[in-house]
Write a structure and sequence with these properties.
Number of helices: 3
Number of strands: 4
Structural class: alpha+beta
Largest sheet: 4 strands, mixed
Radius of gyration: 12 Å
Distance between the termini: 20 Å
Strand content: 15-25%
Length: about 80
């Protein structure tokens, strides 16, 4: 469903758009409340290694459970995500 970019990465914004369309957190809320809080250095045209495990926020946990299902990844697996806007 989601195409891997170069270096075996997924497009983060494509994923966030899909998740929002399925009724999960909006792109803006997920970006602000999870990505910017969890990753200190974010810029355009870069890759980050993301962890889709569980934390203290139930909405984020639900979101991450669906991402793991969509990408067919294990609970403790990190995934390379491309950021490009």
């Amino acid at each position: 469903m989601f195409s891997k970019e170069t270096r075996e990465a997924y497009d983060l914004f494509e994923l966030m758009e899909h998740m929002e369309s399925q009724g999960f957190l909006s792109k803006r809320k997920y970006w602000r409340d999870y990505v910017l809080e969890s990753y200190q250095t974010i810029g355009n045209d870069m890759y980050i290694e993301m962890y889709f495990g569980e934390g203290t926020d139930s909405e984020i946990n639900e979101y991450h459970a669906e991402v793991r299902r969509l990408l067919n990844i294990d609970y403790d697996e990190n995934v390379l995500m491309k950021i490009c806007w």
